[in-house]
Automatic annotation (TrEMBL):
Region listing for Disordered, in residue ranges: 1-20, 286-314
Protein known as: Sugar phosphate isomerase/epimerase
Isomerase listed as a keyword: yes
Keywords for the protein's UniProt record, in alphabetical order: Isomerase
């Protein structure tokens, strides 16, 4: 089904990146721009890719012409040279009255099925675009639901999505989200164990969330999560406060984090996640990439042959 070259399960592409890490910007932080304008902006600024949130203002996952629009988008991404990951964190795409509702944990099986259906559409979109992962999260445990029931619902709701991801060859990357049932990296491993450690289940690691509530410092979180990393989101944050902040406004020391990330060999996109700054999205997109490139480790020097000339194979 995919019309673009598929990437490996750890986000690795077919060839070496020109920079050790590949940076993208999330469209949920550019919600006031038309999708084509947002993509052109990111390409002009020098981003390597885009974190595409499926939502009504950009690529509506419920639109009747989704398949045709996705094919057009694939061609546009190719023209601009942008990689992509597919994100499913739109606030009201399924329910205009409930933020992120319905979830995979809702008591009503039909509501859970609607969220599963959205994720299945996301896998189809990701396969068509050649995305390196599909992102998702568990949702908040509903009132009156015990934890064992919530974990059972989550595993059952994700099972068909994982089957579809395996068929499409696109990893499903679950994000630990503060306040959700699956809130930490340890919770991700709980889910992984409950599902039997499926090959196409991976992790979305949000660097800000590591600062917010993980027991390890962010750089150590990266190293610990490395075998399962399929998608990375990044922004600044303060300890104990779940508020996505522009770089420099929080407490994170980014050079050690990005050094650790580069050392894992991760080659998927590292996507800036500033949804609450969408009102000034172009400004923050322009600011964020130079900050990240300054904080990232320098590219390795090209290999040379014995004469000191660059090797013909690099």
């Amino acid at each position: 089904m995919s019309r673009r070259p598929k990437q490996g399960p750890n986000g690795a592409g077919d060839g070496p990146a020109t920079h050790p890490l590949r940076f993208g910007y999330g469209t949920n932080g550019l919600a006031d721009l038309r999708l084509d304008d947002a993509l052109a902006l990111l390409a002009d600024l020098g981003y390597d890719g885009v974190g595409l949130t499926l939502d009504h203002m950009h690529l509506d996952p419920l639109a009747d012409d989704l398949a045709a629009r996705t094919r057009r988008l694939a061609r546009r991404l190719d023209t601009l040279g942008l990689g992509v990951t597919v994100e499913t964190g739109a606030r009201y795409v399924l329910d205009p009255r409930r933020k992120h509702g319905p979830s995979l944990l809702d008591p009503d099986p039909q509501d859970r099925a609607r969220r599963t259906g959205l994720l299945l559409r996301a896998v189809d979109v990701a396969a068509e675009l050649g995305a390196h992962a599909v992102h998702c999260f568990s949702g908040v445990t509903p009132g009156g639901t015990d934890e064992d029931t919530a974990w059972k619902r989550l595993a059952e709701a994700l099972a068909p999505v994982l089957d579809a991801a395996a068929t499409a060859g696109v990893p499903l990357a679950v994000e630990p989200e503060p306040g959700h049932l699956l809130a930490t990296v340890a919770d991700f491993h709980t889910l992984r164990g409950a599902l039997g450690d499926p090959e196409h289940l991976g992790l979305t690691l949000d660097i800000g969330h590591c600062q917010c509530l993980e027991p390890l410092p962010p750089a150590d979180c990266v190293r610990a999560a490395a075998p399962w990393l399929r998608h990375v989101q990044i922004e600044d944050m303060r300890r104990g406060v779940h508020e996505h902040l522009p770089f420099g406004d929080g407490e994170i020391d980014f050079p050690p984090v990005l050094k650790a990330l580069a050392a894992t060999g991760y080659q998927g996109l590292t996507v800036v996640e500033l949804p609450r700054h969408s009102h000034a999205g172009p400004h923050y997109a322009e600011r964020s990439l130079p900050f990240l490139r300054r904080a990232a480790p320098a590219p390795p020097p090209p290999r040379t042959n014995r004469s000191g000339e660059p090797s013909a194979t690099h």
